[in-house]
């Protein structure tokens, strides 16, 4: 019977020098390395650093899955933050010029609505709510124009 067993270094670094059992063994990431059988359990006690060779493939697949999930969550979070920033912004672009509707009074908003032939339902007060309605209606009209020109 062999007195060595293969274990695999699964840590984050490209290689790891043995500091657990002081064998001076250098482990390359993802490659099976033979260690004395009596020391295997001491290495495997550090399950985020070493795994038995038979468990390495499953561990690597699980790590890839977790990384993919984390990446999907990060992308979804970034998209949500972009959408939130867009929803909070009162900036619109009219003929290449940025306008902050948040600075407009209700009378100025009414004039803007008439000038751009927008249809706004509901009350003009409170002004912040009316401002959002005007912004949304203007963005929708611009989006409609873009789709009409694209056809």
Order of helices and strands: EEEEHEHEEHH
Helical amount among residues, as a percent range?
40-55%
Spatially, the strands of the biggest sheet line up as 4-1-5
Radius of gyration: 31 Å
Oligomer: single chain
Detail the poorly predicted runs: none
Q: How many DSSP-defined strands?
A: 7
User: What do the pLDDT scores average to?
Assistant: 85
Dominant shape:
rod-shaped
Class computed from helices, strands and strand pairing: alpha+beta
Taking the alpha carbons of the first and last residues, their distance comes to: 76 Å
Q: Major sheet: size, sense and barrel closure? A: 3 strands, antiparallel
- The count of helical stretches stands at 4
The share of residues in extended strands comes to: 15-25%
